[in-house]
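Now for today's protein.

===
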Amino acid sequence: MQNIRNFSIIAHIDHGKSTLADRMLEITGTIEKRKMQDQVLDSMELERERGITIKMQPVRMIWKTNHSEESRIMNQESGIKIHDSKIMNPESLDSEYILNLIDTPGHIDFSYEVSRALKAVEGSLLLVDATQGVQAQTLTTLGMARESGLTIIPVLSKIDSPLARVDEVKSEIVKLLDCKMEEIIETSGKTGEGVKELLDEIIKKIPPPKEPENSKNFRSLIFDFKYSTHRGVVVFVRVMEGKVSRNTQLVFKVAGKTFNSIEVGIFSPQETPVETLSAGEIGYIVTGIKEPGIASVGDTVALVSDNLPALPGYMSPRPVVWASIYPESQDDFVTLKQSLGKLKLSDSSYTFEEESSGALGRGFRCGFLGMLHLEIITERLHREFNLNLVVTMPTITYEVEYRNGKKETIYSPAHFPDEGLLAEIFEPWVNVTIITPTRYLGNILQLAYEHEAELGESENFGDDRAKVSMLMPLRELMRNFFDKLKSTTSGFASISYEIGGNRKADVVRLDIMVNGEVLPAFSRVVSRRIVENEAEATVEKLHGLIPRQMIATKIQGKALGRIISSRTISAFRKDVTQHMYGGDITRKMKLREKQKKGKKKMQERGTVNIPQDVFLKMMRS
């Protein structure tokens, strides 16, 4: 165990995390140069296309180092070598070291999964882009690493770039970590500069895994998992105590499901079977389970014979954003149901339940960890299962209290109660952190006012940069706040957020009616102060999309118990007197009166036919 180093990389999106991992794999000889490609650890096509990490990927590297005389201190009396203030066996110096890297996603949607991965390691590299400096999501993940008690090694990336601001960004890191300037390691994932020194620093500073208190019992932490068609669920584990081999009776402590280990192995970076996985090691266990909802991140895998409790820290992932997913063609409903079940085998963090809509047919109400998570799942459904989907406007959950004291959680705007029935409404708020150049502070403050944010403290963060904290309703964060922030700051600002508690909400349900009939597909929950603007915009858009009918079509926006916006599409009109030539005017008047009575009867009994593409255009916008 003294020769094992387990670590992860903390970085904001696009700070060169995967590129640095590529160079580590190349320099340690884990992958031959002729087999190297960009983003080796990003195996999904979607990850390569977008340049982001979605699924965690562990990898095991071997690195041999020769320590300088300065780093060795020999205690002649006890015969123990002390290295970097940590007692180590004499054999462990000048030998091969096992480096286990867990490449984690940087996006805030996957913060729970990242927190479990940080529990599986002893140290982290804080990677900061020399061209961009410290960003908001770096601070969030750094806070999680500090809470886990990890050793932090500061690393500067992209020093080869002509836009690199090495000294300026170094001073930001010094202020952030309260470390010395010379402790920051300069690297380039592109050229490989500084990577060897970084590998030596990992061995020098990150402590080896602690000796377990109980070496007989086996317990391991699941930090990720995937699904294989032939082998079932494959769990990625960090062994905390004991050891495991194939054909061992194991159990998921939280799920309570028992299974027989078909295979155990390590990542190098392909899955490589081994005889046993011991305490301190990171590897995988093939379970053979093909049921969704059994494996989950944070669960504990242990021996069936042990009565030890699960490892602490497990949480059931809680969906934050809700959206309905319908197939464009109802013929694909069964395929969509099967596809959602298959994805659930490799991603337990989203939920789905069947629902039906009069306009869109049968579909599923799904819960996601955030907007990026929603986008990834829908994109995977389209790519991996060749499905064309209609995704409704994302919403959040509301806790409502009725006047009679009854409480209820509302997941869908269509089920949101009427104004007169409610005593109080509660909605989730988020703690938002924004790092921006100071020249854009005015624009951000104006944007915060428009989105009902409560400003917190702000402080200078390096030269010409500021950190702004604020509280904001999650509902407003989803109302294009990210896009507006990037637009008002020319793309220079970065944002991170954490879900906070619930607070009272001043919101109402906005219904869209066509000829007096409410269309549930277009119902939304919006802030009371902007409900009129939202109603006007929605009615105006629908007015331009619905084709003319044989009867007049009235489109209305209803909220607060009254109609607040209305537009009418006039009916087709036939000139019933066109065939007449001459004669008394009363002949034409009789025909027009007859037409008028027929139109009135048609208006009373007729229905408006709204084409499917109208719903698609409204949803996709």
Remarks:
- The first strand starts at residue 4 and ends at 10.
